[in-house]
Design brief:
The complex is a heterodimer. Chain A is mainly β. Chain A has no helices and 10 strands. In chain A, the strands form 2 sheets. In chain A, strands 2, 4, 5, 8, 9 and 10 form a 6-stranded mixed β-sheet that branches. Chain A has a 4-stranded antiparallel β-sheet with strand order 1-3-7-6, with no helix packed on it. By secondary structure, chain B is mainly β. Helix content of chain B is 0%, strand content 52%. Chain B contains no helices and 11 strands. The N and C termini of chain B lie far apart (40 Å). The chains are: A mainly beta, B mainly beta. The interface between A and B is medium-sized, with 25 and 22 residues.
Amino acid sequence: QSVLTQPPSVSAAPGQKVTISCSASSSNIANNFVSWYQQFPGTAPKLLIYDNYKRPSGIPDRFSASKSGTSATLAITGLQSGDGADYFCAMWHISLTTGPVFGGGTKLTVL
Amino acid sequence: EVQLVESGGGLVQPGGSLRLSCTASGLTFSDYSMNWVRQAPGKGLEWISYIRSDSSIIYYADSVEGRFTISRDNVKSSVFLQMNSLRDEDTAVYYCVRDHIWAMDVWGQGTTVTVSS
């Protein structure tokens, strides 16, 4: 299984756009599905993105994601102070023969 | 509203055992596969086990294979994690999580397991 690498931290000012990368160690993740989670301190993670780019009901369209080659990217536009949190990517193989691998997480600071 | 409530965490000595429970409400539990995910203090998320809706398929992470056992009772809308031969590195918050096929869409609040002498 791939190892997923995320930047430990990113920061941006309110109103700006920020991207968080999730790079896989395997050569290609075309047959993998990526999801993204948001976690505030002391609380459980929350699903933000599933199936590479889909948003669950209630997630604003300021949050978007894409996948290409060996990496996936979460983008947050119109940053708000309340977006400051930890963000984790996770990847499943299409075969579902095991559970997912999580990235190490990225702490987003809204300046 | 779908809710998952974990219980059973606590302080246990290395080599000891603990059984976690997760009770679901607001959903037809027997329709869903379930997972356990843990998070060590200050660390990231680690998936540790999966059980299909009918218990026909079970997976474990290598880190817990042979020591942990997942099970479920669809009549009681519950999933369990029996943890044996606990190690210091098993110290974590353990989350019960509903499976969404290639994602996890509902998380419990977590229960804390501390392995220490």
